[in-house]
Design brief:
This protein is of the alpha+beta class and about 130 residues long. Helices cover about 35% and strands about 25% of the residues.
Amino acid sequence: MKNLSFSAPGSVILAGEYAMLFGKPAIASAVNFYATASCSQKTHTSEDKVTPLIKEEIKEYLRKRNLLNEEKSYTFQFASDIPASDVFGYDDARTVVMVALMLKKLSKKTFSHEEISTISYQIEKKNQ
């Protein structure tokens, strides 16, 4: 199986953090910390608590569009050097890389950055 991984930088909101709560723009910047997601064929490796939640959301999204390809079972791994806090976008980066990876592996289709961003936003919004 070809190894596949996705990575995304952490981020920091420079201005407008609370405005974002009301759908207004903010000024953000990437930081030099990264989140990485990878996968392998199903093994006995356990996944963290968040990964199965994201996986179910992605499977449901793909099922509704008749894009789900479940011929193989995968274990998804997540690693990050982003400090696990709200300050550097740890949760957002995790969701984005896991969504990108799962969309690719579970559908065999390439999604645009905009689609990945929109789906990730919806998952984050739903699970907050």
